[in-house]
Amino acid sequence: MTHLEAFLDQAPVLKQTPLHALHLSLGAKMVPFAGYDMPVQYPLGVMKEHLHTRAAAGLFDVSHMGQVVVKAISGKLEDAALALERLVPVDILGLKPGRQRYGFFTGDNGGILDDLMIANRADHLFVVVNAACKDQDVARMKANMAGCDVTLLGDRALLALQGPKAEEVFANLWPGASEMKFMDVRDASILGADCIISRSGYSGEDGFEISVPADKAEELAKALLAHPECEPIGLGARDSLRLEAGLCLYGNDIDTTTSPVEASLEWAMQKVRRPGGERAGGYPGANRVAEDFATGPVRRRVGLKPEGKAPVRAHAVLYAEDSPESPIGEVTSGTFGPSVEGPVAMGYVPASLSEPGSRVFAEVRGKYLPLTVTALPFIKPTYKR
């Protein structure tokens, strides 16, 4: 066996989504991502894919993410909601049927273990978690949600249709699309497939997420792509779109060391779950989160606008002054923002420097480049509220 053969023999086998063959037929460049072979770009290229999504409609394969059904053995949704509230500091009990909201699992130190979307499906909860964390998330729910059945669905794909013309494209297949509002969740029969539709988005644009049986995923994707306003979009543009929208990527902008308040995600904690609320606490790390609310966090996630055209990438060290004597934080995400025609970034700075207009410096190849702390997002979202 050669060294190459030995390496390949030991290399982990990448999983494939139900749309893998379609990606290859469309000329996608594939890369490993969260254990899957995923399209990073198509022949159109990352820049044009990004701008097309902002102008029309882009179709993303997000089937690698975990789709989880949580159902109380009692049959009461209230029991499932209260059980999940023992793991997430958001209001699940008050979530109305046919609606979803953003949330996150917290650890004993108040850090974020994963972020997720939670939908009230009338008799059960439908939870979508990140691909790299889904096995741990399901194990955590099974271990800590007594009285609930927790099932990771293995026979469904997930598509995301994003952009100002997403409704037009989707309504061509399903007229009910135009009746949905931001964060609504509905059932739909599309091309004979039983689908679960939500209306939100990770791009800052209006859009839909479509959970579809795996054996119907390619047919549905092809039908959406047949519309002249819809193009396939890869991970490259997905990343620049979400960064312009000021949205976090788990493992980069939030992780087990960042509390929700440090991460500027306290907006996702409803009043009843905040300190002093009627259902405050009761989740892992609640004491640390309460302390951050009471005294303010030591650091905050902020938007960062570099001067000039050169992007400042993740892991660049931040300084209060243009010298190596004063490191204060780190860039967590950074790229060129095609829609704003300039570099954009996010990172953590001391709370004292977190106000918009504050000035910091990033070390890039031995030089100290100035950045301005900026309010997020960098673009105006177009969600249909």
From TrEMBL:
It comes from Pseudorhizobium banfieldiae. Gene3D superfamilies: Aminomethyltransferase beta-barrel domains, Aminomethyltransferase fragment, Probable tRNA modification gtpase trme, domain 1. GO terms for molecular function: aminomethyltransferase activity; methyltransferase activity; transaminase activity. One of its GO terms (biological process) is methylation. InterPro entries: GcvT, GcvT/YgfZ/DmdA, GcvT/YgfZ_C, GcvT_C, GCVT_N, TrmE/GcvT-like. The keyword Metal-binding does not apply. Residues 19-271 form the GCVT N-terminal domain. Substrate binds at E209. This is aminomethyltransferase.
